[in-house]
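Fold this sequence, please.
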Amino acid sequence: MEVRRLQAKEISCRVQQTTADGVSILLYITSRAAMNLLDDTYGPLMWKRESKEVNGEERCIVSVYNTDIGEWISRDDVGTASYTEKEKGRASDAFKRACVNFGIGRELYSAPRIWITNAQAKIQKKKDKEVYYTYDRFAVKSITYNNRGEIDSLEIINLSRGNEVVYKQFPTIRITKPMLITIQDAIKEIGDFNDFSVDKIYDMCSISDLKEMSVNDYEPVYNKLLKMIDMKKRGCD
């Protein structure tokens, strides 16, 4: 059973680093949110967790029941301690890492670098120390994903400044139908010359379908295709 993507309300924000110039934000999922998603996907009675210590590491085993084969399917991982409540932090981290192995929250690994400037957050400095901090709290306002399950657009708000939008990643603009036809025509003209394959374009643009190509990728891809067409006409390898 496929796990759905995280909604904005299910994603939490943590200040990862604070400098005089601003703060960097880390997106993460809480244990409670992971539990709720397991409930929604498999049912409250169709999954279970087990924690144990192995070689000094906190290891969590998450199992879901596969009704098709009548067996429990398990995934496990280890956790690292948090700065507060060391043991609880290790257990929580191990649980969330095990959940990632089922696809829960995996999309957050595609998050961009989120930097909030000091004009959008209140940065404070400790007395007599070059140490900066902030009490501002942040949240995800909106989020969308592409066909590969990676974050495509993202909005972060500062809850301490009246929900002001302080970070925005705009969605990828896809190529138009005429642009798509132009690419397809060029590919047909190249054929299998020099062992060409459309997979090379997929790898170049990190896509699985030409329709997913971004406008930014269009020009370099088309120029590359034109060069190959010219090479084919001149009989070059």
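DSSP finds five helices and eleven strands in the chain. The CA atoms of residues 174 and 213 lie 6 Å apart.
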